[in-house]
Amino acid sequence: MNSLMRIQALAVNTFREAIRNKLLYTLLGFGILMIGSGVLLATLSYVEVDEILQDIGMGAIRFFSAGIAIFIGIGLIHDEVDRRTIFTILSKPVSRTEFLVGKWAGLTFTVWLQLGLMALAFGIVSWMAGAPLGADHAVAIALIGLELMLLVAIATLFSAFTTPMLAALFCVGLWMIGHFSRDLRALGEQSDLESVSTMADFIFRVMPDFEVFNKTLEAVHGLPILASEIWMAIVYALGYTICTLLLGSMIFSRRDFK
Amino acid sequence: MTVERGEVVRVERVVKDFRPGFGLRRKRVLHGVTFQVDRGEIFGFVGPNGAGKTTTLKILMGLIRPTEGSASILGRDVAESEFRDQIGFLPENPYFYPFLSAREILDFYARLCGVDSRRRAARIDELLEVVNLSYAADARLRTYSKGMLQRVGVAQALINDPEVVFFDEPMSGLDPIGRKEIRDVILSLRAAGKTVFMTTHILHDVEMICDRVAIIVKGAIRHQGCIEDYLLNSTVSTDIVLSQLSSETAVSLEENFSVEMRGLGERVELTVPEKRVRDVLEAALTSGAQVVSVTPHRSSLEEVFLNAVQDEEGSV
What we know:
The complex is a heterodimer of chains A (258) and B (316). Chain A is mainly alpha-helical. Chain A has helices spanning 2-18, 22-42, 49-73, 78-82, 85-90, 96-129, 135-159, 164-190, 194-206, 216-221, 227-253. In chain A, helix 1 packs across helix 6, helix 3 packs antiparallel against helix 6 and helix 6 (96-129) runs antiparallel to helix 7. Chain B folds into two domains: 7-232, P-loop containing nucleotide triphosphate hydrolases (Rossmann fold), CATH 3.40.50.300; 236-298, ACT domain (Alpha-Beta Plaits), CATH 3.30.70.260. Chain B has ten helices and 14 strands. Chain B has helices at 53-60, 102-112, 117-130, 146-158, 176-191, 203-209, 227-232, 247-257, 277-286, 300-315; strands at 7-18, 27-38, 42-46, 68-73, 76-77, 87-90, 164-168, 195-200, 212-217, 220-226, 236-243, 260-264, 267-273, 290-298. In chain B, the strands form three sheets. Chain B has a six-stranded mixed sheet with strand order 6-7-8-3-9-10, sandwiched between helices. A four-stranded antiparallel sheet of chain B has the order 2-1-4-5, covered by helices on one side. A four-stranded antiparallel sheet of chain B has the order 12-13-11-14. The longest helix of chain B is centred in the middle third of the chain and has 16 residues, at 176-191.
């Protein structure tokens, strides 16, 4: 119970700090601008206007939300160490795992909140353009929320032991690989060299597969999203997030704060 | 680890190596540091800059792990975190979230310590009063001066009414009034039966408030003992500043009481052996001189400290 109270206090504080970050509003603003600009870009086509509008909107939500998760997340622990605020916090009955989880929870809540704002903008733009909106759109956006939860955990992990610059490189790299690893494996399978296909398969299995959370195509084109796919995404996100935070906690627990 | 009666902090043969950069070479910053702090005392941990005071304190706070040896507080290994609701810590030059007010940051720390929600607000008000920050309780910390931040640091260290309080250079950057306020807080903690561990390189503070002291130089404890022992063994002299002292009386004081005399404009400063202070004052007052100040000098701790530093430098 006390542990939950401490994590909650840390999370609330992280949230209060994150919402003062100018980067959050810059990326949120660009995201909403991009969602809105879908109306103009869709007019360039005579067919599938609604689909183009929503495809751009969903893409903007995913891209800018990931940017917020990564670029605020990479400083999450590093800044606390750099500013030495961590000294007084860890001198209280707070374990390093609680600290890490509290920071992760606070930023996850922040990116979910901004995701909600972008989703609202997406809904308003779709409604004004007369594009269809249904439960599938909500599911697709909720899955982006799961992706962000995992992405924040990865950013927290790297922030726990490296500089923001390196953490940013690792996070962006992982996020991109995570969206292309299926294609990479498919390409590898077509290769004549066994080592290439083995390597592509290895990358697919070891790296996070962010395409699990990508149901934009189904939502935009009215294709069914299976309940099993949703459950798979939930279990995958929770499992991967817990493992990432555990690894982060193990590394963070061994750190000296000079 | 067994806890002896009355013992609150125990540090045993602690060694700490740091690895500068990415190389394999290690730099040893603590060489088998051993000391203990007893319940209810103010313990001064003294040393020059870079001696290893803060490193030792960080080991006690669980912020860095010892390479060898062990450290415990209230009988619990410092690597544990659960018992930390019984300790308080003020780091050197504390920094807090600038977007919060003093009241909000204290509420945050109170939550981390699990302070009961019914007691929290009253405890925060009480501490703001103690550190004299009630007037600025709701101002953002970014608007605070260094001295005010130091006082917030003291308040957060006491938020959980701890048994043991650790202060790292508590008087650092404070003006004379601020230093007196912090000294009063530390003395009131001892009066309340709390144990205080403070690092400092200001010997005057140590002499004024500490019960025991350990001197660390280049990562090794050179001396430790009761402050009374240092002071009793000290060579005491007293500086007396007089005004309106006639030249005849001055010559008489110099000849009869073997005092050293220096002119300070219209005033005269005398350095008088401890045993002759009363006689000198009586003679001066009888002659019509006025006493401006009387300042006793106990140089013992300072001598021990300087000798320890010089010995170490000489041995390198």
